[in-house]
Structure formats: structure tokens, C-alpha cells
Amino acid sequence: MDLRVLKYFLFGEYKHLDLVTESFNLFNHPNIAQINPIYGSNLPPMPGFGQATEGVGARQIQFSLDFEF
């Protein structure tokens, strides 16, 4: 879940200041990028078959301050 919060302050008719907070992967849920596809040549399957081998996207939070005129 991503979240963005924006608050702006007006300075005259055309100028404004933006305070922005953005959060990516807000709840820090593990995102799987790669699953082990190797089954092996014997029965039952090799240990690790179908298990996650790589993850991506840990929680990130960024702040910005923008002045537009």
C-alpha cells in the first residue's frame, strides 16, 4: 500500500509552498520477486522448490518541500 500526503500553503495568487510525504510499501509487507522453479529429477521435489528466493521493495518514506511561482 502506498500513501501520499500533500499540504500546500498559498502565497499570493500564483505562488504556493507544497509539503509532501510519500510512503511506499507502508506496512512493510514482503514482496516476492523470484520463486525457485527447479523441481529436480527425483521424487519428491528438491528442498526449496516453490520457495521465495528474492524479495523487493522494503518500506520507503520520502519528504519533499516545493515552492512554485
Number of domains: 1
Helix and strand run: EEEEE
Count of alpha/pi helices? 0
Strand content: over 45%
Q: Number of DSSP strands? A: 5
- End-to-end CA span: 32 Å
* Anisotropy-based shape: rod-shaped
Structure description:
The chain is an all-beta fold and 69 residues long. It has one domain. The chain has no helices and five strands. It has strands spanning 3-11, 15-24, 31-35, 52-56, 60-68. The strands form two sheets. A three-stranded antiparallel sheet has the order 1-2-5, with no helix packed on it. It has a two-stranded antiparallel sheet with strand order 3-4. It is rod-shaped and about 75 Å long. The two termini are 32 Å apart. 0% of the residues are buried.
Question: How would you concisely characterize the structure shown here?
Answer:
The protein is mainly beta and 69 residues long. It has one domain.
Question: Which features would summarize this protein structure in a list?
Answer:
mainly beta; 3-stranded antiparallel beta sheet; rod-shaped; 69 residues; two-stranded antiparallel ribbon
